Amino acid sequence: MGTVETVRIAKRTGFCYGVREAIDKAKESAAGGKATHTLGQVVHNEGVIQNLLDFGVRSVESLDDVNNGAAVVIRAHGVKPEVFERAEERGLEVIDGTCTWVVAEQRQLRELVAEGYTIVLLGTPKHPEVVGLLGFAPDAIVVDEEADWVNIPRRKRMALITQSTQPPWKFEKLAAFMVSRAHELKILNTVCPVTIRRQEDTLELAREVEVMVVVGGRHSANTKELTRLCEIAGTHAIQIENARDLDDPSPFDGKRVVGVTGGTSTPIEDLRDVAERIFELAGTDAARADAVALAEQALDAAATPAGRTTSLPNPPRAAAGAA
Ligand code: SF4
User: Fold this and answer.
1) How far apart are the C-alpha atoms of 129 and 150, rounded to whole Å?
2) Does ligand 1 have an atom closer than 6 angstroms to the CB of 195?
3) CA of 194 relative to ligand 1 center, distance in Å
């Protein structure tokens, strides 16, 4: 018999505002009758991609796949300036869903280039946000793991900036390392506040529960960081992509209180589904019988409806398909 009585969902989870805005803009465009595409998947989450398809929004990998006259949504990560230029040449309607925080980073990079700094960008190479940022500072040196840092050259005037979702501890450590690399060092702390708050709330919850479940893309750096933080708090964490990945009750053996958190691309409703699955898999008899209601209560305790995935209601399934 299972032992789980309570599942708690971390506060300030669900989509970050940048992702939510981009999704809403895409849905609004499609709901207004315009053929709408997103350039790349807005988030790597099957449910969200299907929901967007229900609105008629399809993701494309290149502007070449967008028909003339259609609208194309730039996702929260942003893109290189050339992408806007190419879209304009093609006469496409561009809906800019670049997160305001990323727009600020892009502007700061442009200024650093104009001021002649040698720029070091802490980020995951090939991550779409980093690729977009490099469009504003093509000569920036991208570094990620600590082992790469020795390759940072010594220069007179250097600037350090970061991809929005990098862990604050890593940025601080690199800043300290770079002090010895330059005569003048300018530090721009562009770690997104949403990332910081999510990490704080996850840490707080991890300290209060017996085991944590972290929900997010397998390759998502901010999700992996949440898992790492739970372990630092001394609470074992299981990382999964969605409720279907939970089929082994053993991590919950003897546990009464379980915590659930998620990355910035994970809808908060997915966390409710995970809570329900935990009750079904490892709940006490009473919890198992009441799994749906208990999971809904956990969601209510974590977020008001305004804090949820989207501000737009879903279309009837019959309206699906138009693109
Ligand atoms: S993590 Fe922060 S910077 Fe990145 S899209 Fe979300 S809100 Fe914007």
Assistant:
1) 24
2) yes
3) 7
Q: If you measure from the C-alpha of residue 229 to the centroid of ligand 1, how many angstroms do you get, rounded to a whole number?
A: 19
Helix/strand/coil (H/E/C) assignment for every residue in 169-206: HHHHHHHHHHHHHEEEEEECCCCCHHHHHHHHHHHHHH
pLDDT band for position 306 (cuts 50, 70, 90): low
Phi, psi dihedral angles at 260 (to 5 degrees): -130, 135
pTM of the predicted model over 0.85: yes
**How many angstroms separate the CA atoms of 23 and 25, rounded?**
5
CB 42 within 8 A of CB 294: no
Among the atoms of ligand 1, which is closest to the Cα of residue 101? 3
Distance (Å, whole) CA 307 – CA 298? 14
Our answer on whether the CB atom of 66 is closer than 6 Å to any ligand 1 atom is no
Residues 173-232 have pLDDT tens digits of: 999 999 999 999 999 999 999 889 999 999 999 999 999 999 998 878 889 999 999 999
C-alpha to C-alpha distance for 252 and 288, rounded to whole angstroms: 14
Give the Cα separation of 140 and 2 in Å (integer): 53
Please confirm, yes or no, whether 276 is among the known catalytic residues: no
Strand ranges of the sheet holding 182-187, from the earlier edge strand across to the other edge = 141-143, 118-122, 155-162, 182-187
Q: Which residue puts its alpha carbon closest to atom 4 of ligand 1?
A: 164
**Residue 130, ligand 1, Cβ within 6 A:** no
From the candidates 105, 129, 225, 280, give the one annotated as an active-site residue. Answer: 129
Ligand 1 atom closest to Cα of 194? 2
The model's pLDDT over 127-171, given as tens digits with 9 standing for 90+, comes to: 999 999 999 999 999 999 999 999 999 999 999 999 999 989 999
Any ligand 1 atom below 6 A from CB of 99 = yes
